[in-house]
Amino acid sequence: MRTVRQMLTGKPDVFSVRPDETVYHALQTMAERNIGAVLVMSGGELDGILSERDYARKGILQGHSSKDTPVSELMTARVISVDPGATVDQCMALMTDKRVRHLPVIEDGRVVGVISIGDLAQAGEQSRAGDECERAQQRLPIADDIEEQAPHDAENGRR
To answer: Which residue, 94, 123, 125, 156, has fewest beta-carbon neighbours within 10 Å?
Structure first.
């Protein structure tokens, strides 16, 4: 089973904003990076996470202006995180149970990445595709076996 550490290989940097920056700035960052959430950090410490869902539910629906509201007012401060050794299945179960779509990855007290539900879905698809290929290879005869099994055409001297 794939681990978070394996999934982080090749992923871009972690994107974050400060708690005192405006929600508008955070939304711009998300739009520019095509991501659904940003970490909220100050001095290298994880203070929270702000997602598009947070903005929709706590910002728009409650009448907050994104240009006047600091990230700290809308962010989720109780962040659910994982360590790099967690598996895809463990992360999916955690996301399902806690109803979150992004998990910061923490190692030795510092943020080393973020895993999204989309990352997990993609990792699951790759894993299933790899499993299918492996099973198919186990069922397919190798070329030498095919030649031996082919009927011999005595008339044309071919198999």
So the answer is: 156
What pTM was computed for the model?
0.76
Amino acid letter, residue 93: A
Q: How far apart are CA 17 and CA 21, in angstroms?
A: 7
Q: How many helices (H) and strands (E) does the chain have?
A: 7, 5
Condensed to tens digits (0 to 9), the pLDDT of residues 12-54 reads 789 999 999 999 999 999 999 999 999 999 999 999 999 999 9
- Enumerate domains of the chain plus CATH numbers: 4-138 (3.10.580.10)
- Rg over CA atoms, the chain: 24
H or E segment and range at residue 111: strand 110-116
Rounded CA-CA distance 16/59 in Å is: 19
- Provide the 8-state DSSP code for 159: -
| Distance between CA atoms of residues 30 and 33, nearest Å | 5
Distance of alpha carbon 156 from alpha carbon 55, whole angstroms: 75
Q: Is 43 helix (H, G, I), strand (E, B) or coil?
A: coil
Residue 129 has which token pair? 């595709």
Record the tokens describing residue 40, joined without a space: 């909220």
At 88, which amino acid appears?
V
Are the beta carbons of 112 and 105 closer than 8 angstroms?
A: yes
